[in-house]
């Protein structure tokens, strides 16, 4: 007899039935932080898996005399699992903005993307990671786009860069989770750039 599931519960090959969920472990909670805070170690915790993404770099300013600004690089991604025995009572959670670093205490961090240059189409570099068991660098700023933030669970596209067409494009910031910002376009005036997308910290708690 195979193990089956019916309206009464799980029926095992020996014809016994389990009608309630198992207790004493196996709990799971995921917490997503889009701003800096302090994480407090919960009671009964066994371990955490942490994912961090640094903020995208800002785009560079552009103008008629100096040309278009460069595009910002994408934020770096890092992930690490940490046993509860290594964690104290609380840990600082930092979420980067405008090319800043995102981190879970000193355990793991994702650095922000570099800013695009002002007045020249030199793009910012991609961010990296520190302390990660798996790190994925952010993409450098691209011609035509801000850098992509490699978020692991998602891919955060950049936005259109400044151009030589003599008029400003729409004011668009980088997407959240580490996308690089748009450089300001060339034109008859001095045009501002766009801000890189903020980072994120994801904490998965296992009980």
Describe the structure.
By secondary structure, the chain is mainly beta. The protein has strands spanning 4-6, 9-11, 17-18, 28-33, 37-40, 47-53, 62-63, 77-83, 90-94, 102-104, 108-110, 129-130, 134-136, 149-150, 155-156, 190-191, 200-206. The strands form five sheets. A five-stranded antiparallel β-sheet has the order 4-17-6-8-13, with no helix packed on it. The protein has a five-stranded antiparallel β-sheet with strand order 5-9-10-11-12, with no helix packed on it. β10 (102-104) and β11 (108-110) form a beta hairpin. It is elongated, with a radius of gyration of 23 Å. The two termini are 33 Å apart. 50% of the residues are buried. The model is unreliable at 151-172 (pLDDT under 50).
Beta-strand content: 25-35%
Overall geometry comes to elongated
Radius of gyration: 23 Å
List the strand order in the largest sheet.
Answer: 4-17-6-8-13
Structural class: mainly beta
How many runs of DSSP E, i.e. beta strands? 17
Q: How many strands, which pairing sense, and closed or not: the largest β-sheet?
A: 5 strands, antiparallel
End-to-end Cα distance, whole Å, is 33 Å
Oligomer designation: single chain
Q: Percent range for helical residues?
A: under 10%
Number of helices: 0
Order of helices and strands: EEEEEEEEEEEEEEEEE
Low-confidence stretches: 151-172
Average of the residue pLDDT scores: 78
Quick take:
By secondary structure, this protein is mainly β. It has strands at residues 4-6, 9-11, 17-18, 28-33, 37-40, 47-53, 62-63, 77-83, 90-94, 102-104, 108-110, 129-130, 134-136, 149-150, 155-156, 190-191, 200-206.
